[in-house]
Design brief:
By secondary structure, the chain is an alpha/beta fold. The protein folds into three domains: about 180 residues, 3-Layer(aba) Sandwich (Rossmann fold), CATH 3.40.50; about 190 residues, Rossmann fold, CATH 3.40.50; about 100 residues, 2-Layer Sandwich (GMP Synthetase, Chain A, domain 3). It is about 30% helix and about 25% strand. The strands form three sheets. The chain has a nine-stranded mixed sheet, sandwiched between helices. It has a five-stranded parallel sheet with strand order 12-11-10-13-14, sandwiched between helices. Helix 5 packs across helix 11. The longest helix has 23 residues. The two termini are about 35 Å apart.
Length: about 525
């Protein structure tokens, strides 16, 4: 439940790939947004005390036999409602209108003609470019509705019932390709719903600290820290809430980057109230991972091993009723279909990898935030810039950067390559220009020539991407001279590597990590 009562927007998710973008665009207006499944009950929606409701798009056809629908009678609440694409069609059917298959499907840029004098399009041009993605369309309006925008192929591109404050858009205002999408969403959430723009990193942190105190009461909390941005911000946030009742544990799983354990201990000892518990569990993790080649199995094994170690630490330092983690929204989105009929992409060790019989209740204060929002919270909490701007690092560590079976010598090679790459980015002033950069050790050998001798050694991949929140990413256009110099340095300095390649895949269709 959100405590942003009357200041937030509830988004009901029908499985659109763009649902999270709606949430991000709303938060950019300093208004909190929370995503609930389309099956949410009226009580669950009312518990959020929203100022308005948005119905997302969907990959399904509203005319299909298994089309996801509304469980709750949201219109009885008297709140403003905005339907986007599938959401508009669902409103139309629910209110007595008609939806049919389009004569031709619309995907991509379209110019709409906007009717003057309507609050949803206030301050936007009479003609504007939008992003369409639909195969069905509203053919006749429900009673009390009027058309407020149209295209040549879609006569009802937007509709409104001004009296009841119900609106529908056949296009997607949340995507970058809709020129005035942010203004349209702002008109809905600020002018129509009356939300106050009070959402910020500072207000989130202050409220979350109080929420943590209410949740854990007088209990002690075991805190899993990795030294990354997410876990560091989470640990400091929980520390400010409960102080010495927090027990921060750092586990060296043998899958960390070069010198990472030392850097983490130095950082956290400065910013946490209590002493850090350091556990060297490299042997245990690598023993359990021995011979395992499947990436999903690796994640599950790592997740189970972490929990086993935390339960052991609980017996030593406890008892504890809660385990705190730095889980973020994209972790949950990619790990399981928690909202709407969306697809699971991969499990994360701190989400999909948790066992069902776990002995802790979870505290995940960042689970509704995207990475850029977490960085803002970290800045507010006073963490150093070098930590806040640190690139993301996967929970399973180097296990997902060594495809196939994991061997200690391979990890050592990868650490050397990764260190050269990251240090090179920093020295060249390129580190802060990319979202994430790392190396992957391929499970193949490559023929090469060094001096007058034939070599048959490892090939490595360098990966650098640009992104805002990790949901989508583009490959970083690093200077060719830089790539050439780094490639030469890696091959010359790292014994066992004779080939370096650069990954130019985007997300989607690829993911950022290789496994």
């Amino acid at each position: 439940m959100s405590d942003w009562s009357g200041e937030s927007i509830v988004i009901l998710d029908f499985g659109s790939q763009y649902t999270q973008l709606i949430a991000r665009k709303i938060r950019a207006q300093k208004v909190f947004s929370n995503i609930l499944p389309n099956s949410a009950s009226i009580d669950e929606i009312v518990a959020e005390k929203p100022a308005g409701i948005i119905l997302s798009g969907s990959p399904a056809s509203v005319l299909g036999k298994k089309a996801p629908g509304l469980k709750a009678d949201i219109f009885s609440l008297g709140l403003p409602v905005l339907g986007v694409c599938y959401g508009m069609q669902l409103i139309s059917i629910d209110r007595g209108g008609n939806v049919d298959k389009s004569d031709h499907r619309e995907f991509g840029h379209t110019v709409i003609d906007v009717e003057s004098d309507n609050p949803l399009f206030r301050g936007t041009p009479a003609k504007q470019r939008v992003w369409m993605s639909h195969g069905d369309k509203v053919n006749s309006l429900p009673a009390g509705f009027e058309t407020i925008a149209s295209t040549e192929g879609c006569p009802i591109a937007a509709m409104e019932n001004r009296k009841e404050r119900i609106f529908g858009l056949q296009f997607h205002p949340e995507v970058y390709h809709t020129d005035h999408g942010e203004a349209i969403l702002r008109n809905f959430i600020i002018d129509i719903c009356g939300c106050e723009p009070t959402w910020s990193s500072a207000s989130f942190a202050d409220r979350e600290i109080e929420k943590i105190r209410e949740t854990v009461g007088e209990s002690r909390v075991l805190c899993a820290v990795s030294g990354g941005v997410d876990s560091s911000v989470m640990a400091v946030l929980v520390d400010k809430a409960i102080g010495k009742r927090l027990c921060p544990v750092f586990v060296d799983n043998g899958l960390l980057r070069d010198r990472e354990a030392e850097e983490v201990k130095e950082l956290l000892s400065e910013y946490l109230t209590t002493d850090l518990v350091f556990v060297d569990a490299a042997d245990e993790f690598l023993k359990r991972l021995d011979g395992v080649t499947d990436a999903e199995k690796k994640r599950k094994i790592i997740g189970k091993c972490f929990i086993d170690i935390f339960e052991e630490q609980s017996r030593i330092h406890g008892p504890f009723d809660f385990l705190a983690q730095g889980t973020l929204y994209p972790d949950i989105i990619e790990s399981r279909s928690t909202v709407g009929p969306s697809a699971t992409i991969k499990s994360h060790h701190n989400v999909g990898g948790l066992p069902e019989d776990m002995k802790f209740d979870l505290v995940e204060p960042l689970s509704l935030l995207f990475k850029d929002e977490v960085r803002e919270v970290g800045m507010y909490l006073g963490l150093p810039e070098r930590q806040i701007k640190r690139h993301p690092f996967p929970g399973p560590g180097l296990a997902v950067r060594v495809p196939g079976a994991i061997r200690r010598p391979d990890l050592d090679v990868l650490r050397q390559v990764d260190r050269i790459f990251i240090d090179g980015l920093k020295k060249s002033g390129l580190y802060d220009e990319v979202w994430q950069a790392f190396a992957v050790l391929l499970p193949v050998k490559s023929v090469g020539v060094m001096g007058d001798e034939r070599t048959y050694q490892n090939a490595v991949v360098l990966r650098a991407v640009t992104s805002t929140d990790g949901m989508t990413a583009d490959w970083a256009k690093l200077p060719f001279d830089f790539l050439q110099d780094i490639s030469n340095e890696i091959i010359n300095r790292v014994d066992g590597v004779n080939r370096v390649v650069y990954d130019i895949s985007t997300k989607p269709p690829s993911t950022i990590e290789w496994e």
